[in-house]
Specification:
With 259 residues, the protein is mainly alpha-helical. It has 2 domains: 1-57 and 86-131, no CATH class; 133-259, no CATH class. It is built from 11 helices and no strands. The protein has helices at 4-28, 33-52, 60-82, 89-97, 102-130, 137-166, 185-203, 211-223, 226-229, 233-236, 240-246. The longest helix is centred in the middle third of the chain and has 30 residues, at 137-166. The protein is globular.
């Protein structure tokens, strides 16, 4: 059973960290730092919960290790990718659409919102570490999903980073490697990771946390992921329209016409 007091303290720590990051973003006039912070909030929330909670189950250490590996890899990747770059164009658009006083509005429409969302999505992991039942088949299925998701996310990010460093023509489109089978292997991998965490939570009896992977999948597909990224990409990369025609947006699949 989830320790409500510990869960609330975890939320408080996540929101406080988001507040401090907001202050730093105001000084820099760049809210892109929230992308590097995003995955670290999950790790912070789970760590605080484990420190405060009265009891832990057999899944506590394995889940902490899984969340740590996912969190640190993703944060490091985004930090390296964004180093020396101007504020992400997505946040530039949000900034332009929320004037005047975006510096203040960004506290709740960017930082506190992401802190709250991270806590909600982290609830399967929090619930799972509290479960006292012995690990079973669902735990191993969840681990298999987590590994699959990490492969898609890590390899997809690496392939895109390598492509960006080597591409010489403006408007070039990556359509090889994992990107041959899905236009967003990294986002697909992210969703699979959190469905893996849910299976582990389900094994621990926390069936009620189903809303968390559903929310993460919705965000990746309709809010901050696929939908937002592809909103104007075809205007900047004309070849992307053909890429859309022959390649699945999210779920991996065989390219149309075998291309």
């Amino acid at each position: 059973m989830v320790d409500l007091h510990a869960a609330i303290l975890a939320l408080g720590a996540m929101l406080l960290t988001a507040l401090m990051a907001w202050l730093y973003s105001v000084a820099r006039r760049d809210v892109s730092i929230v992308d590097s912070l995003w995955s670290l909030l999950f790790l912070l929330g789970l760590a605080v919960y484990l420190m405060v909670s009265a009891s832990h189950g057999p899944r506590a250490l394995p889940l902490l290790l899984l969340v740590t590996a996912w969190s640190l890899r993703l944060s490091l990747h985004i930090t390296i990718r964004n180093h020396g770059q101007p504020e992400d164009r997505r946040y530039q658009a949000i900034r332009a659409n929320n004037q005047p006083h975006f510096w203040l509005k960004s506290l709740y429409i960017v930082f506190l919102l992401q802190g709250l969302l991270a806590w909600v999505i982290c609830l399967p992991a929090i619930a799972a570490v509290s479960g006292q039942t012995s690990p079973g088949p669902l735990d191993y299925a969840g681990l298999a999903l987590w590994i699959t998701g990490m492969i898609f996310e890590t390899v997809g990010d690496y392939q895109l980073s390598r492509f960006r460093r080597s591409a010489t023509a403006d408007g070039a489109v990556l359509d090889t490697g994992l990107w041959r089978y899905t236009r967003h292997p990294n986002y697909f991998g992210e969703a699979v990771i959190w469905w893996g965490f849910y299976l582990i939570a389900l094994s621990a009896g926390a069936w009620w946390t189903l809303f968390a992977p559903l929310l993460m999948t919705f965000l990746l597909l309709r809010v901050s992921g696929v939908s937002l990224l592809e909103k104007d990409i075809a205007d900047r990369r004309p070849d992307y329209r053909d890429y859309v025609r022959r390649t699945n947006a999210f779920l991996p699949g065989r390219p149309v016409n075998g291309n």
